[in-house]
Every structure is written in structure tokens, then in C-alpha cells.
Amino acid sequence: MSDVNGVARDQLRAFVERIERLEEEKKSIADDIKDVYAEAKGVGFDTKVLRKVVAIRKQDQNERMEQEAVLDLYLHALGMVPAPEEE
Amino acid sequence: MSDVNGVARDQLRAFVERIERLEEEKKSIADDIKDVYAEAKGVGFDTKVLRKVVAIRKQDQNERMEQEAVLDLYLHALGMVPAPEEE
Amino acid sequence: MSDVNGVARDQLRAFVERIERLEEEKKSIADDIKDVYAEAKGVGFDTKVLRKVVAIRKQDQNERMEQEAVLDLYLHALGMVPAPEEE
Amino acid sequence: MSDVNGVARDQLRAFVERIERLEEEKKSIADDIKDVYAEAKGVGFDTKVLRKVVAIRKQDQNERMEQEAVLDLYLHALGMVPAPEEE
């Protein structure tokens, strides 16, 4: 019999093993991603910026443009960016 | 006049400064917490366990006891803890 | 020619696409893990505890036992657990 | 006597209570910060952008300008921004 105090031992073990296998795969892919960034760095790319590029590509581009415009406005109001030309 | 392209410059600056002041205070208290842990470590306490104690005290204790009981059951079913006595 | 202001356009695009493909795979495996937990929940397992089991299996078991012993000591000192039997 | 199995009960309790008091203060300031953002939102500011402004002000501004320049280069190379004027 496979129950321990009402816990289906084999079923529990199977779930745990499936999760562990998937977590290993996930970890392995996360390592691959790090390797690609390292490779990009090795040929001269700025990986911090590269990460930002990847993040930006996930965003809605219209929404992003609008946010950048509001950001410029705020930074300008705070004197944190040079005034736009011809103002 | 205090508007820059419709942004109320003084109001914006006031919000930013209030947030920055509060964030400094928050940072300062976070540093104090680290100091208390360092002091506890200095007189021999295990700070990893101390953090766990603090976390446990935030939990509902009945709920915690129930979860610990289920955890024991699962670990036992997986052969990860010695069998309870007299079984 | 594939350079834009000194940026190797094709190389950049290749890196970005490799990263995006890997991130999709990672996301897909993360979804699979969620599905396994959902399935375990569906047959009656406590997924919060199941997550803890998976985390515990990653730890060094001797270290874990030691930490649990210290935790019991601290909780006991604070009157947060019933005194051990026969004291 | 104040020791329980070698744990200085009063000292442990004092540390825990100091930590809990500081954590409450930290939580209270975090709530204050949320309130300021809510107030800013209430008078029409975009709080997502406001958070970004606060983050930008923490950065080294020269470093930030350089990173923005590299980002523009990469986005441009990927055809993700309109070409700069007069190129």
C-alpha cells in the first residue's frame, strides 16, 4: 500500500519529481540566457542596455512613447534635462 | 509662472522631494534593522534563524501549526524525516 | 553594409532574437511548473506545503536539521512552542 | 534565571522586539510613500513616470546620458526608433 497517513506517497513523489525536472530545465535555460549576454558582452555590446532593449520590445510601443514624452516633460520641469531646442 | 508645458513645476518638485525624504527615512530604518541583526550576531545569535523567528511571529500561529503538520506528513511520505516514534 | 553608427546591426538582432527565444522557452517551462502545482492541488495536495518540500529538498539536510533545532530553541525561549516533553 | 537551554531569553526577546518595532516604522513610512504617490495621482500626475523620475535622480547623470545614447543607437539599429533627423 502506498499511503502514509493518508498521503498518496507515489503520487506525491511523482509531482515532486516532475517539478524538480522542470525547475532544472528552467535553470538550464536561465543559464543559457546568461551565456548569450556574456557572448554579446564579449563582442562589445553593453549588456545592461541590451537587457533594456529586450524589456522595451516586450512593451506596447505606443504606450512607451507616451510615457517617454511625459518623462521628458517632468525631467524638463525639474530642470534635469536641457530645454528642447527653439523653445 | 510655474508651469512648464502644463506641468506644475513647484507641485511636481514638492512631490518628488517628499518622496525622496521618506525614502531616505525608510533606508535609514532598514539600516537600523541590519544593525540590530549585526548586534545580535555579535553576541552569538544565529541571524538567519532570528529572521525566521520574526517571520513566524507575523504568521497566524494556528495556520502555521497546521502547515507544519502537513509538511511533516509530506516529508515523512517521501522518506525525508525519520518515522515518528512508536509507529 | 550592416553597421549603424558602429553597431553591427545583424549581430545585435541575432543576440536579441536568441535571448527572446530563450525567454519564451523559460516562460513556457514556468507555466508548466504552475500547471503541475495546479494538478497537484486538483487531487488534494497543499501546494504551499508542496513548494516548501521542493525548497527543502534543495537544501543541505544536515544544515537544515541544525537550523530547525536552533529555531525550536529560540521559539521555546520566547514561549512560542510548548515545552519539549519530559522537561 | 533567564536562560533556556543556553539561550538568553531576555536578550533574545529584546532583539526580536527591537526588530519588530523598526519593521513597523519601516512599514509605516512605506505606507506614507504610497500615500504621497496617491496624492500626486489625485492631482493628475502619472505615478509610473513619477517613480521613474525618482529612480533617475538616484542615478549618476553622466552615466545615465551615456546609457541613453547607447540605447538609442541599439534601438535605431533594430529599426525601433525613427532615424535621427538629417542623417
UniProtKB/TrEMBL annotation, chains A, B, C, D:
Coiled-coil zones: 5-39
Record-linked InterPro entries: GapR-like, GapR-like_DNA-bd
The entry's keywords: Coiled coil
GO MF entries: DNA binding
One protein family per Pfam: GapR_DNA-bd
Ranges where the GapR-like DNA-binding domain occurs: 8-79
Record flagged with keyword Coiled coil: yes
Domain of life: Bacteria
Family: Belongs to the UPF0335 family.
Protein's UniProt name: UPF0335 protein HTY61_18900
UniProt lineage: Bacteria, Pseudomonadati, Pseudomonadota, Alphaproteobacteria, Hyphomicrobiales
